[in-house]
Amino acid sequence: MKKISTESYKGVRDFYPEDMSVQNFIFKKMRETAESFGYSEYSASILEPTELYQAKSGEELVSEQTYSFKDRGDRDVTLRPEMTPTLARMVAGKKRELSFPLRWYSIPNIFRYEQPQRGRLREHWQLNVDIFGVESNEAEKEMLSLAHSLMKNFGAKESDFVIKINDRRIMNALYEKYKLTEEEVVQVSKALDKKSKNPIEVFKATLEGIFKINKHVEEFLETIESNQKLIKTLGEDNPLVKNLMDLIDGLASVGVTNVLFDSTIVRGLDYYTGIVFEIFDTDPKNKRALFGGGRYDDLLSIFGNEKVSAVGFGAGDVTIKDFLETHGLLPAYTSTTNLYLGVIDDAFPTAQTLADSLRAIGVNVAVDYTGKNVGDQIKKATNDHIPFLAIIGKKEIDSKKLKIKNLATREELEFGFDEIEKIAKMLV
Amino acid sequence: MKKISTESYKGVRDFYPEDMSVQNFIFKKMRETAESFGYSEYSASILEPTELYQAKSGEELVSEQTYSFKDRGDRDVTLRPEMTPTLARMVAGKKRELSFPLRWYSIPNIFRYEQPQRGRLREHWQLNVDIFGVESNEAEKEMLSLAHSLMKNFGAKESDFVIKINDRRIMNALYEKYKLTEEEVVQVSKALDKKSKNPIEVFKATLEGIFKINKHVEEFLETIESNQKLIKTLGEDNPLVKNLMDLIDGLASVGVTNVLFDSTIVRGLDYYTGIVFEIFDTDPKNKRALFGGGRYDDLLSIFGNEKVSAVGFGAGDVTIKDFLETHGLLPAYTSTTNLYLGVIDDAFPTAQTLADSLRAIGVNVAVDYTGKNVGDQIKKATNDHIPFLAIIGKKEIDSKKLKIKNLATREELEFGFDEIEKIAKMLV
Fold first, then answer.
1. Please, which residues have CB within 8 angstroms of residue A375's CB and are 6 or more apart in sequence?
2. A352 vs B304: CB contact, 8 Å cut-off?
3. Which residues pair with A111 in a beta bridge?
């Protein structure tokens, strides 16, 4: 028989218990933060009709980076490359029954066929938080407060990250000045989105190809590099500029003070219509955006629905994990098992009965069936990072008492078999 | 622009918040039960190299029921149709580093291209619980205790379900009596697995095609229908029969008394090598197995590894949910949001500050930004099944007090803005 490889598929991860515990830590913080702002969890299948992505997700994503195939019934299927189109489909599908504003979150896995590299894998999980039906910038304010809380709940200090915001409509106003065509606007947006990843010359060369007039390129570069210049160009009374400044002030008043206006933030996806934002690590070694989002008021129209205001963001597990590792914010691994019950002298029935009583009041107990010596059983508990250990044998059965040892501090306490509640208090 | 459908892909589910809350209830009970027996969570990608399933998963499953395709790099990829091969791959891949026995669980989603029907969908989630490295039937005993606890933790009574067990080796001993070839054994197993789904004549006709001698068919049918007959045929001292009877007695001694020996239980998958079991609803209206599993000691050999004993089971969310619905065991929906904070008189900043203080001590708070009248805001909280409501306006700002209302009992209590801890106690 041919020997099968134990490698996973390229660019995806296996989660052994210690890896899973990191995932669960990240997911728990995401969940708690979203729920603390009143968001409810939703979910959907990773399988979606391919047409869902053809309208709005951006051409590169759909034609080069999706996992798409025909099923056995000749339907075109795609593994979701992002969650927002699915969310929009679900909202559009029950628009009349749902009570707006909606506050929804999900932590889906999403798939992109890319060359795997640091921070980018072919499958990753992504917290998606979205609010539907709030037109005012209270929606952006809440979304950015939530993103800020997420980072704080992970243990980050405000100085560890910065929130950069922009407004696509501000950029459009600027493009109008240079009379760019719709296609040229898309090209400039794409170039802006990739600006920080390349030397400035690459960006400049792209602009020169689009603007034709070299003076305009210089002027445009100066404008986007300086907020003062940009505000002057558009006028301080410009309602878009005022809206953005109001948002920054409003956030400061609720304690979110690390927000910067940055006109190079545009976001890659086609469906954003207003404010966009990205959260960055302030550590210069890690220049990629941690996560981002924005306002997308038109997405439901692809289902023939009327417009619904929407603001949301997506935060991936891979970049978050890199951030937490860099800043030393990942907790040490401990097993979810509280007590390892070693067994000698074939005392299995007693051990099982005791284990069952403890389980009934919320203690997680593993019983050893190996019949190995005590030393090996202690070693097993230690290897598995289980915090407490007890051994049951003839002596314990006779005395109806057992000693519970804290494997980290080496403290040991003795309990009667009937002191289940007291044991539970020590362990959980 | 072409209007896109809001339907999901065929045979999969969208989980709106109320549906998700059912999923989360089921997953929570699964998680708690597995962890209470000392099992640690693992996970992996849904994408696997297709070759992983070609050795052991059963031909029908691989060639007719998988989602398989070529990726953009011409690799053969399959969406996992079950978790056990992935688990075996992971264990084989780190066999030298892992400390045995392993107790692992996971709740993966798995994919089968089938005609959707009650209890069967193209994507479902499945609790997988497995123990590696225990040769004695203590492994089966623990696994069946765990399955039994799972049902009890869902709120089922012992009379609501029955655990049917068999041993593939017992069946093999029986087949030897009739000198069946390996291929004929597979055919009889398949027929047994489907026996309960068809009229008995279908099963009989299949047997007649295999056994040739009609007397043997009658004898075989009688033997599998009666445990006494089967035990007599194999001899009471047969070690396999003794092992099975020991297991049933051992389970009874730890309070698991609804276990029956049933020689028609064989399980569809090719990799089982010993004891197999299935859990059935005792309600005659729901005759399909709820879930099942067994011992598979040879699966690691497909990776060129030496044998490792393994026992496990898989329990799907769809059949469990049907069971819980039938028996009235699903809890009523409540939002994860504890408090809905209605806002009038543009009191947004006060509402946000109060909400943030409550969030900081673990209360989930949604703030209303609509500016609608109080009646509409109360209606929104009620629609969303949020248990508590408070309204903040000019009056509350002036008095620095707010009233919190329990929307179910209509009780109302007044608190000062500074009594955050007292408010939290009422809400969480």
1. none
2. no
3. A123
C-beta separation of B427 from B338 below 8 A? yes
Give the CA-trace dihedral at B134, B296, A22, B365, to 10 degrees. -110
A41 and B17 within 8 Å at the Cβ level: the answer is: yes
Contact B9 A48 (CB under 8 A): yes
Does domain A339-427 fall into CATH 3.40.630.10? Answer: no
CB B147, CB B131: distance < 8 Å: no
DSSP-assigned letter for residue B117: B
Which residue is closest to B80 within chain A, CA to CA? A9
CB A260 within 8 A of CB A277: no
Q: What are phi and psi of B38, to 5 degrees?
A: 85, 20
Provide CB contacts within 8 A for A420, sequence distance 6+.
A357, A358, A361
Interface test with B, best of A20, A36, A71 (most B CBs within 10 A): A36
From first to last of its 428 residues, chain A has per-residue pLDDT tens of: 568 899 999 999 999 999 999 999 999 999 999 999 999 999 999 999 999 998 766 666 677 889 999 999 999 999 999 999 999 999 999 999 999 999 999 999 999 998 888 778 999 999 999 999 999 999 999 999 999 999 999 999 999 999 999 999 998 888 888 888 888 888 888 888 888 778 888 888 888 888 888 888 888 888 888 888 888 888 888 999 999 999 999 999 999 999 999 988 988 767 899 999 999 999 888 877 999 999 999 888 889 878 899 999 999 999 999 999 999 999 999 999 999 999 999 999 999 999 999 999 999 999 999 999 999 999 999 999 999 999 999 999 999 999 999 999 999 999 999 999 999 999 99
Cβ-contact B103, A381 below 8 angstroms: no
Q: Which CATH homologous superfamily contains domain B17-326?
A: Bira Bifunctional Protein; Domain 2 (3.30.930.10)
Domain edges within chain A: 17-326, 339-427
How near does any CA of chain B get to the CA of A186, in Å?
19
CB A143 within 8 A of CB A278: no
Please indicate whether, in this complex, the C-beta atoms of B4 and A46 are within 8 angstroms of each other. Answer: no
What is the C-alpha separation between A235 and A173, in angstroms, rounded? 11
Q: Where are the alpha helices (DSSP H) in A83-135?
A: 84-93
Residue with tokens 């190299």: B49
Contact across the interface for A5 and B49, Cβ inside 8 Å: yes
CB contact under 8 Å between B40 and A337, yes or no, is: yes
Alpha helices in A195-257, H assignment, sequence order: 200-211, 214-225, 227-234, 239-253
Q: From the list B13, B24, B36, which residue is nearest A359 (CB)?
A: B36
Identity of the residue numbered A330: L
Strand B161-167 and strand B275-281: the pairing is antiparallel
Contact residues on chain A for B2, CB-CB shorter than 8 A: 51
Please count the CA atoms within 13 angstroms of the CA of A273 that sit on its side-chain side.
Answer: 14
Is-contact B51 B35, C-beta < 8 A? Answer: no
Nearest Cβ partner for B37 among A73, A99, A366:
A366
Nearest by Cα to B276 from B254, B286, B257, B261: B261
Which chain B residues are within 8 Å of A36, Cβ to Cβ?
359, 362-365
